[in-house]
Amino acid sequence: MKHLFLLIVCCSTLNFSYSQTTITGKISDTTKIAIPFTNVLLKNPENSIVAYTFSDDGGSYKIETNKHGNFNLVIAAMGFERKIILVEIPENAKNINLDVVLKEMPFELNEVIVNATKPITIKNDNIVFNVKSFMKGNEQVVEDLLKNIPGIQVSAQGTIKVGNQEVEKVMIDGDDFFEKGYKILTKNMPINPIEQVEILQKYSNNKLLKGVEQSDKIALNLKLKADAKRQWFGNVNLGYGIGTKKPYDAQSNLMSFGKKNKYYFLTNFNNVGDDATGEINQHIRPFSFDEISSVGDNQSAYSLMDLSSFTPNFKASRTNFNNAELISLNAIFTLSNKVKMKTLGFFNSDENDFFRNSIETFHLDESTFTNTEDFKLRKKRITGFGKIDVTYDISKTKMLEITSKYNNQDENNKSDLVFNEAQTNERLKNTNELFDQKITFTNKFKPTKVLMFTGRYINEKSPQHYNSNQFFFQDLFPNATTANNVVQTSENELHFAGFEAHLLDRKDHGNLLELKFGNQYRKDNLWSTLLLKENNAVIETPTAYQNNTVYASNDLYFNSKYRLKINKFALTGKLALHQLFNQLEFKTITKQQPFFVNPSIAFDWEINKKNKVQSSYSYNTSNATVLDVYSNYILTDFSSFSKGTGTFNQLNASSIFLNYQLGNWSDQFFANTLIIYNKNHDFFSTNSFIVQNYSAAEKIVIKDREMLNISSNMDRFFKTISSNLKLTLGYAKYNYKNIVNSSDLREVSSNNYNYGIELRSGFKGIFNYHIGTKWTTNEIKTSLTNSFTDNVTFLDLTFVLNDQLNFKFQAEHYYFGNVNQENNTYNFLDFDARYVIKENKLTFSISGKNLFNTETFKSYAISDINVSTTAYRLLPRQVLLKMEYRF
Description:
34-stranded mixed sheet, mainly beta
């Protein structure tokens, strides 16, 4: 990969050395006082922005360009007359100095604001980006555009963060279609209708809470061009290529965003590994931590078994052998001045193939053995989801919100497994059915006081049927000597009902009082039946492997919270009182009525605009779930059993949080360090019995587990090279205890270190790059010590030769430690080339993935009981010819 670094240096040098001209100067008023934060734009004769910057605290500015000719230098500052200076840049000019004096204009402030063309505009808590100023020419969907916006980060999975915080939602002209499931929008919507991107800081999901609640949430709003409103438009993108799977990729978007009604319809069909929806659970069960009126957001039914298709530390699209079909129909109707209805629905069908070959060596106290697996999985999943939101503005201060959603998912898994040379066929059928109703009433009865009532009901079922044509448990069931296959049927059915009343009272000086009273009732019916069979005949139904558990928990609670603000220092105290009524039914009925208090205290201190500190301490008691209390064993995969405690438990934990922030995410320099320390005074561990053919684990309660997480990142933008440098450091330490094949507790210590560096350019020329590397080290200590180190390095190169032709190359290098030295490094190269036949109408492109045709990769993993080397099959080389038509 050293050649990649050399290439980037050479390309950067070429980019800078091509007739680079620097314009510098100082901006002041007529009394020679410097004017900071002034907008400085360099425009060509066609009035397009060539380059832009802002003056610093001392009024100095510097703007760079590699173009020559006649230009207009536009200087605009709030409260001053805008000034336009004609600038001639000769071909060989290196430096041009222009000091600027602005005249005050105190009575025409509004006119200046309206007429100034700014790439970035700050309006109170909102930051508005002019999309045209941040286009590089190769963007296709919203996700591509957002990667160019300063301060916004888009992960490989599509998660969007501003600074270090994930956004709540991505809206279109103020209306939200997908909530936390925004990836379905950002991965599919074309960018041509978008005029501005707004970052909404201190965002409130409920508009009546704005200015009352203490919010640090962030949302994005995509503002559309005037000609994109009140008319139907869209695009069709078709791709077909060569490869062993006959790769295809077909997408379409049809949309209309009028003032009264909004429609967004999309389809996505592909077998090239692309995930069109993102994490589908974010659509079905969106969750926001500590959100007001979020009662029930953390409730869901459990699935007891899963045929794993996990791939560690690797780009998911390279192992995603898929055949995906997505249809999504979404609309927002303004039924009247007071009533708005949102409908969301999608149908998703996907077939996934997964291939894994592993060697696991177990090191236990008195035995050592090796297991081999050759695992092939086909997973077919069909999901249908529908949701209706109705918002009724009873008055300017009262609002009623009703949400109803239904989800139905069927999944069929078929695996061909060779376990220690024994051929095994597994079949697992999963079904999930969800019915969810929620109603919220908000009354802002005074400008600084809000009262909210929320009610919710959830019913969810997750039945599973599993069978395996092999029997590995002869030692465990000595009476079933003729058994040759296993069948397990199970189900968890959830009933949840919750009510909550929440009062927010914003006091003088920014103080805030919150009172919350509520009741949440959850009832789980969990049952499982294990059958040992000879062909089709049942020869044993082992009693200790059958479950029929009914677990109900009613939580009556009262929370009080007060935030005291003293200048730039704020202290927050919280007290939560819980009275539980638990009932566990398995053969007999037992009841429990524990009472506990969860206190916490926190402070945040804005030392100045560049330095902020936050810290908190909390003591928390949590109630056991149905997965912790069932009494008998359940089969969780082809060779593993697990068992709950069979009784009630409440677990206690303490947590300390410390965060230091230097600068702001929108500054040239921004750094953030986070430290979290958790101590579980009680925690669920396992008492395991492990032999070569099977394992059985029983949950036990152990004292004292410690976890320490430290993460730090730094961003620095260098104007001289128009590039942003990002450094990340992380450390995590876990100490816990368990029992394996004995009666003695053993200490386990786990350490994780990671560090990375990235450099990303923001040139206005034909070339841009993004390069980075990340190292991860894992270490586990028991009676033995095992460790390994992995590395991922990448390089993205973009060439926009003109308005019609652009290229993008993506190179990746993977290194997996402790794997055979001949098979521990892997290189990948992808490319994309686009040619615009007619602007905003017709585009042809060609794309290629895995051009080196790497077929497999191997990774190394460690745990407290084994070490493993696993080989995964990769999607083969594929080249697609694509056509996009916009209408």
